# Entry
Amino acid sequence: MVCIPANSQLVKELDQVSPFYEGLAAIKKGDQWAFMDKQGTIVINFRNDLVATSQKEGDIKAPVFQNERALINRIEDNITYYGYIDKKGNEVITGPYVNATTFNNGFAIVVHFSRKIVGKNKLLDKDVVAYHLEDYVIDVNGKAMTPMLHTRNCNPDKLKSGKSLDITTVLLGERMVGVQNAEKKWEIHSF
# Structure
């Protein structure tokens, strides 16, 4: 009997690898992540905007595709904003989201950041501005499936601290969410 080795090196010099999710595995080199398919072909090239998350307790943190969407982020004016890409690497959901979850059963939770002019300081000739955070459930196309779930005022300096804001809404099951209000009590909503 002749043993023929069938081992061939596909990708090398990687700093981290993850399990396959939806047919793609995240691979890391330096500070950038990419995705490869089950043949070892890189299908989304190395980039620095992919967000590493844990899918299960004890899992390594890595970007994943869930419902054919992967979480990305970008920094504008020292604030981190989140969005999603498809399996071709195209950004398909973008918005003023200052936090977001991966998709689960076709839905994700996002924290929408808004700025509204509420008046004018005539003495200083400057706008008076109110900043708000609102939780929403979105579908894989970015459509809001719920009205705002937990509206709260926000200090934009907190957004610039580099720390992720808490998401006060959790997906409980099929078309149902739990929302923590300002008094730290929970409400259940269906959508």
In short: The helical segments are 156-159. The two ends are 63 Å apart (CA to CA).
